[in-house]
UniProtKB/TrEMBL annotation:
This is SLOG family protein. The lineage of its organism: Bacteria, Bacillati, Bacillota, Clostridia, Eubacteriales. InterPro entries: YspA. It holds the Pfam family YpsA. SUPFAM superfamilies: MCP/YpsA-like. Signal peptide: none annotated.
Length: 164
């Protein structure tokens, strides 16, 4: 199953002017993964890139009904502090996904890192949106590289390189 699994990690804040381009790249990379035999896609349920990735998988599921969206959620209180629209989007994704699990019932120090490690540990591929070299996304991408995952970064650097 691991060889057929791709996880996502990325920043919560996405520049609005990049949104359409990132969605286009997500569709392209996910479709390429499907054509290589990947059927399981894991997302962490966070705002920003996680939400974009989950919604893209759900949209592509209409064309590729064999694919599955699995949410690995840090805790049952993840949406505390989110606005009503964000919570509604989260609940809609949860209802539409194929499976979801919680790392913890309540927020604990480290539950986000544990969620990220779980996503990586169960995957062979990682599609990310990484623009900074610090924070949770940077940690997760480095962890994925150490674990030998093939990592594709949808954020293009000045040199045009998309490899994380």
């Amino acid at each position: 199953m691991k060889k057929q699994t791709c996880c996502f990690t990325g920043h919560r804040k996405i520049p609005p002017e990049q949104y359409e381009e990132i969605i286009k790249r997500l569709k392209s990379e996910i479709t390429a993964m499907i054509q290589q035999g990947v059927i399981y896609f894991g997302a962490g349920g966070a705002l920003g890139f996680d939400t974009m990735a989950a919604q893209t998988v759900l949209a592509l599921r209409e064309q590729y009904p064999q694919i599955k969206l699995i949410l690995v959620l840090p805790c049952k209180t993840q949406t505390r502090g989110w606005n009503e629209e964000e919570k509604a989007t989260y609940e809609n994704i949860k209802k539409a996904c194929d499976k979801y699990i919680y790392i913890s019932d309540a927020y604990t120090y480290g539950c986000m890192h544990e969620r990220n490690r779980h996503l990586v540990d169960c995957s062979s591929y990682c599609i990310c949106y990484l623009t900074k070299h610090s924070g949770g996304t940077a940690y997760t991408v480095e962890y994925a590289k150490k674990k030998g995952l093939i990592v594709m970064n949808l954020a293009v650097s000045e040199s045009g390189n998309r490899k994380a």
